[in-house]
C-alpha cells in the first residue's frame, strides 16, 4: 500500500516521537506530517516495560516536555503514569490522529533524483508492506532493540528449574509470591526491581559483578507542591525544571572536576542509609562518578529493604547455574526459584531499519553526528536522541525545536535538501555517547562517531546545546543547503518576467 506524500515523517510514537510531533504542530502548522509506530499505542519504552516498580530514573520536571507541565509531585514517576502523560499530550495536541499504528519500519531510502525519502514499513499482523514518501524523516526510535534485551552467556542457565525472566518482557500478572528471587545486575532496572519485589517475594538477592553509584533522592518535590498554592502551574513547573537542570549540571561538572570529593560524599550518604550491618564493598564502584550513569532511588527504598533484611546484595561472578540456584566463583551458592536477568539493553539505532542514500548502504559507525542529531552526508534526516547524563527529554525537546527551525529556514529560502558536511576532517573514533557503560561499549561498532570540535562533538551539556540548537545560525558552514533545478527555473522565470515588466515600464 502506498500512502500520500508527506512533508515530514516521524518514526516512533514514544516520548520523543510524540514530543517532536507536538513541536511540529505548534511551530510548523503548515507542514503535513505523519507518525509510524510499531506498537498498538503510544508510549514506546513506557508501554513496553511493565516489570514491578517500573519508574523513571530521572526527575519528572526535566523528563517532562518543556511545553507541558508534569503536574504530579513525584520526583520519579511510575511507568503507567508516564505513559498516560505521553498519551494525554498526544491527544491535547491532536497528534494521535496522525499516527499509523502496527507498522515496523524496515528501510529508509533517500533519492537525490527526487529529493525525498521512501520509507518501507511492515504491517506485522497482515504481512503487507506499506510505503511512505516524505521530504524529511525524523527518527524517534530510541536506542535499543525492542524485540530482545541483552542477556550474557550464563553457564548452566538452561538447567535452571525455575523461571528466567528479562525485565524487557515481563509476563502479564506474573505471581512471585513466596519465591526466592535473584536479580542479576546493578543498573537502574535492578535497583528498581529489588525493593519492588520484596512486597511478595520470600527474599530478593541482587547479584552484581561490580558495584554502581546509588544515590537517594526525595520521593516528592515539596517545594513545587507548596508553590502550586500561590503560583500558576506552568510557572511552578519551569522553576522546578530550571532548578533541577542547574543542580544536575552542577553535580555532573563537580564529578568530572572533583571526582574524589564527590565519591566521598556519595559513599558517605550510602553508608548512612545502609547502616552498620551492610558491607560497603557492594556500593564502592571501581570508577569515578558519572563515568557511567548513576542510579537514583526514591527515599532510599533500596537501602531500606537491605537494612530490613528483605533483600540482600552479593558482589561476585557466576560460576554456573544449577537446577535450584546459582553457584558463584567464590564457592558460595544462592538458592533461587526465579532468576531475573536485569543485564541491560541491546543497543540498536533506527529501530533496526536499513538506511540507504541513493542505493548505497549507510554504515552508521563510519558517520559523524552533527550537533548530536543529524548524520554526516545523510540529507534531510534527524535523529532525536536524548541525554545519557541527564534527562532524555531535555535534549529531545531542543532537538525537535532545531528541526522545526531548520524546516522553516528551508521553506523560507526555497531549499529542498540539507546535508551535514565535514570539510575540516574533524572525525574521531569515539562514539557519540562516549560512556564506559557495558551496553554502550558492546554496541560501539553500531554507533555513529563524534568529532573533535563543534558542531561534531556531543558534549551532553544542556546549557551548551540550548543556545546552539534554539538560536544558532543555520548557515554555519557545516550544513549544505541545495535548491532543486525546478525551483531555480521558477525563480529565474519570475526574475525574467519582473525584468521585462520593468523594461516595459521604463520605455513608457
Keywords for this entry:
31% helix, FAD/NAD(P)-binding domain, 508 residues, 21% strand, five-stranded parallel β-sheet, 13 helices, alpha/beta
Description of the molecule:
With 508 residues, the protein is of the alpha/beta class. It folds into two domains: 6-147 and 346-486, FAD/NAD(P)-binding domain (3-Layer(bba) Sandwich); 157-341, FAD/NAD(P)-binding domain, CATH 3.50.50.60. Helix content is 31%, strand content 21%. It has 13 helices and 23 strands. A hairpin with a 3-residue loop joins strand 19 and strand 20 (374-375). Helix 1 (15-27) runs parallel beside helix 10, helix 5 crosses helix 9 (301-307) and helix 7 (233-257) packs across helix 8. The radius of gyration is 25 Å and the shape is globular. The model is unreliable at 486-491 (pLDDT under 50).
Amino acid at each position: 500500500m502506498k500512502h500520500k506524500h508527506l512533508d515530514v515523517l516521524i518514526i516512533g510514537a514514544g516520548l520523543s516521537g510524540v514530543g517532536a510531533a507536538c513541536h511540529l504542530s505548534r511551530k510548523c502548522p503548515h507542514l503535513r506530517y505523519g507518525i509510524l509506530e510499531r506498537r498498538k499505542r503510544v508510549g514506546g519504552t513506557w508501554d513496553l516495560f511493565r516489570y514491578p516498580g517500573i519508574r523513571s530514573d530521572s526527575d519528572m520536571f526535566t523528563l517532562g516536555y518543556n511545553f507541558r507541565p508534569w503536574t504530579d509531585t513525584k520526583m520519579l514517576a511510575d511507568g503507567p503514569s508516564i505513559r498516560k502523560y505521553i498519551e494525554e499530550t498526544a491527544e491535547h495536541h491532536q497528534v494521535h490522529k496522525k499516527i499509523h499504528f502496527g507498522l515496523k519500519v524496515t528501510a529508509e531510502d533517500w533519492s537525490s533524483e527526487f529529493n525525498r525519502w521512501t520509507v518501507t514499513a511492515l504491517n506485522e499482523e497482515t504481512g503487507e508492506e506499506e510505503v511512505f514518501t516524505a521530504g524529511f524523516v525524523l527518527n524517534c526510535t530510541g536506542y535499543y532493540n525492542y524485540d530482545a534485551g541483552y542477556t550474557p552467556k550464563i553457564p548452566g542457565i538452561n538447567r535452571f528449574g525455575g523461571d528466567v525472566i528479562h525485565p524487557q518482557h515481563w509476563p502479564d500478572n506474573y505471581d512471585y509470591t513466596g519465591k526466592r528471587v535473584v536479580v542479576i545486575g546493578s543498573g537502574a532496572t535492578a535497583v528498581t526491581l529489588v525493593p519492588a519485589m520484596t512486597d511478595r517475594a520470600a527474599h530478593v538477592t541482587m547479584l552484581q559483578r561490580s558495584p554502581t553509584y546509588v544515590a537517594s533522592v526525595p520521593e516528592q518535590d515539596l517545594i513545587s507542591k507548596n508553590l502550586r498554592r500561590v503560583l500558576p502551574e506552568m510557572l511552578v513547573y519551569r522553576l522546578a525544571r530550571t532548578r533541577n537542570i542547574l543542580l544536575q549540571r552542577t553535580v555532573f561538572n563537580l564529578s568530572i572536576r572533583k571526582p574524589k570529593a564527590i565519591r566521598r560524599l556519595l559513599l558517605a550518604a550510602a553508608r548512612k542509609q545502609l547502616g552498620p550491618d551492610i558491607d560497603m564493598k557492594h556500593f564502592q564502584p571501581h570508577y569515578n562518578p558519572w563515568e557511567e550513569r548513576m542510579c537514583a532511588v526514591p527515599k532510599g527504598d533500596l537501602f531500606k529493604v537491605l537494612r530490613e533484611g528483605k533483600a540482600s546484595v552479593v558482589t561476585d561472578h557466576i560460576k554456573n547455574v544449577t537446577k535450584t540456584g546459582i553457584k558463584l566463583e567464590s564457592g558460595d551458592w544462592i538458592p533461587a526459584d526465579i532468576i531475573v536477568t536485569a543485564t541491560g539493553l541491546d543497543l540498536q539505532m533506527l529501530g533496526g531499519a536499513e538506511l540507504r542514500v541513493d542505493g548505497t548502504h549507510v554504515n552508521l559507525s563510519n558517520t559523524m553526528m552533527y550537533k548530536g542529531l543529524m548524520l554526516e552526508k545523510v540529507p534531510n534526516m534527524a535523529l532525536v536522541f536524548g541525554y545519557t547524563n541527564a534527562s532524555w527529554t531535555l535534549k529531545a525537546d531542543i532537538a525537535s525545536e532545531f528541526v522545526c527551525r531548520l524546516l522553516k529556514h528551508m521553506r523560507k529560502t526555497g531549499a529542498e535538501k540539507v546535508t551535514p558536511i565535514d570539510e575540516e576532517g574533524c572525525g574521531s573514533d569515539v562514539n557519540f555517547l562516549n560512556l564506559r557503560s557495558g551496553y554502550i561499549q558492546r554496541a560501539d561498532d553500531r554507533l555513529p562517531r563524534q568529532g573533535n570540535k563543534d558542531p561534531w562533538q556531543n558534549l551532553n551539556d544542556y546549557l551548551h546545546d540550548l543556545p546552539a540548537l534554539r538560536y544558532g545560525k543555520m548557515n554555519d558552514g557545516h550544513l549544505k543547503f541545495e535548491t532543486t533545478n525546478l525551483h531555480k527555473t521558477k525563480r529565474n522565470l519570475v526574475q525574467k518576467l519582473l525584468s521585462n515588466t520593468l523594461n516595459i515600464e521604463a520605455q513608457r
